[in-house]
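For reproducibility, we list the full input for the adenosine-5'-triphosphate complex.
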Amino acid sequence: MSDFDKQEPVDVRRPGAGEVMLECRDLSRVYSEGPQDLVVLDKLEMSVKAGERVAVVGSSGSGKTTLLNLLGGLDLPSGGEVRVADTALHELGDAEIGKFRNRHIGFVYQFHHLLAEFSAVENVALPLIVRGQSKKDAEQQAMKLLARVGMEPRAEHKPGELSGGERQRVAIARALVTDPSLMLMDEPTGNLDQNTAASILELMDELAASARCAFVIVTHDPGLAAHQDRVLRLDGGRLHAE
Ligand SMILES: Nc1ncnc2c1ncn2[C@@H]1O[C@H](COP(=O)(O)OP(=O)(O)OP(=O)(O)O)[C@@H](O)[C@H]1O
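The corresponding predicted structure, in tokenized form, follows.
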């Protein structure tokens, strides 16, 4: 058992399909570093159900990245709360938040941050190894996920030997391997050509149909946004239905 697994467990009852998976109440984030306070999120409310896909759009500087960081427990709110699977993230300690993130939150970013020196299967297996699973078991599970995203034949290749779309598929497999409660995606098709982006979109449809998680997808791409169950626009520190 790794030290990671010896920490206090973060026990949560996982909401089922149709139940609220992500909830923000009165969520505020104020940056106070500059000469004047900058209120980026202002008592924002948000609720996403298990199995639901929500796109968040908004102009540059409207606070999308700030919101994603709060939803993923990478930053703390100035006020209000984020609840994932009915757990208030700000109430978790430093050790617990890391563990909670590993268990419950999957991240996919435009620049996928795959580790260059590891193969695709090793990259996907890593979150399970961190969790204390044996390398063999973790890689077996990783292979299943790679097969789901159509990347099994390329499993032994390193990121530098894969195309942009293939790397993004690996990143999606890595985010899904822990069976997260919440998938956070930041421009998941941002640096891909149209055909590759379309194939990632198709893949997301398949995954959403079977996944038990809530999806929050930040994008500037109107096509990707329109493809989700709901589109919310971040403006003036709050979310508005499109
Ligand atoms: N750590 C920080 N300290 C102070 N101000 C910040 C900090 N991070 C972001 N900001 C400011 O907060 C506002 C929102 O930034 P954020 O990155 O969340 O916007 P965004 O909607 O993701 O923008 P983009 O679409 O351009 O990526 C911006 O005005 C930005 O300058």
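Residues 1-9 have pLDDT under 50 and may be disordered. Strands lie at 20-31, 38-49, 53-57, 79-84, 87-88, 105-109, 182-186, 214-218, 230-235, 238-241. Both points were considered when choosing residues for closer inspection.
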